[in-house]
Amino acid sequence: MSSGFDWDTAVPTHTRTTLTDEQWNQFNSDGYFVVENLVDPTTLAEVTAETDIFCEEADSFLEKLPDSRMFIAEKGAITFAPNIALKSDALLKFVSSSPMTGLVHDLIGPDARLYHDQAVYKANEKPRRFPWHQDNGYTFVLPEHYLTIWIALNDVPIEAGCVWAAPGLHKSGTLLHTYVEPLGWEIFEDPPVTPIAAPIAAGGAVVFSSLTPHLTGPNVSDHMRKAYILQYVGPDAIRFNGPHDKLGTPLTDDARFPWVLRNGSRV
After folding, report:
1. Alpha-carbon distance 265 to 252, whole Å?
2. Domains plus CATH for the chain?
3. For the chain, N or C: smaller number of CB within 10 Å?
4. How far apart are CA 139 and CA 64, in angstroms?
5. 46-58: pLDDT as tens digits
6. Within a 13 Å sphere around the CA of 208, how many CA atoms are in the beta-carbon half?
7. 3-class secondary structure for 12-40?
8. Distances (CA, A) of 29 to 91, 126, 138
9. 105-123 in b/e burial notation, b at 16+ Cβ within 10 A?
10. Could you tell me what percentage of the chain is helix, strand and coil, using 3-state DSSP and rounding each to the nearest 5?
């Protein structure tokens, strides 16, 4: 949990190059905003072809496990393929492309690294929600505010399991999470504010802070829901692996956490 967190000091104050005033104001007040058509159709097809390969490999691995599941991944329910940009030239190019780095510049700063990426495919065979959580609730990072870009690889209406956000709660910092089997870490079952759905078409994205409570609903559509999720941190980020880790690990390994921006320029 946070101690003495102040949202106003967590977000950058440099000149913005990409965000509109409306987007910035919504990000500041609600903790998220939606960008339509962030990724062009040709690039989207290339990215999806790559993420399909990695998710098929992840599903094949799950098939060999007891009950076809590991942690919160389960075949027929939800598949995770993490850290795949480091295995694919096409994805590594994509995560540092100008549509992404423009958002990163304005919301993180002129120096930023790729922290984490994963393809998350939600099947409709075993519909289930992903619980209310903050990204910083899974592995605590300082500074607590980093950036998530949740990209729809195909159309994600409400019935396919779109993102829902609990607006305004990001300003309270990292909240206490409790593990709920088999769903994952959860802050609350029902938020203390009115949640807002963020359905998006293929190529659109939901952009939010690591402190924004959010979930994705069950996929009750007739197709697989496909998303590619990118996360970026600033140059001074430190990750803490559990409550007993008092020193943390600086995220400075260039091979594991590659630069995407240096001094405002794409890397």
Report:
1. 18
2. 18-261 (2.60.120.620)
3. N
4. 27
5. 999 999 999 999 9
6. 30
7. CCCCCCCCCHHHHHHHHHHCEEEECCCCC
8. 32, 35, 23
9. bbbbbbbbbbbbbbbbbbb
10. 25, 30, 45
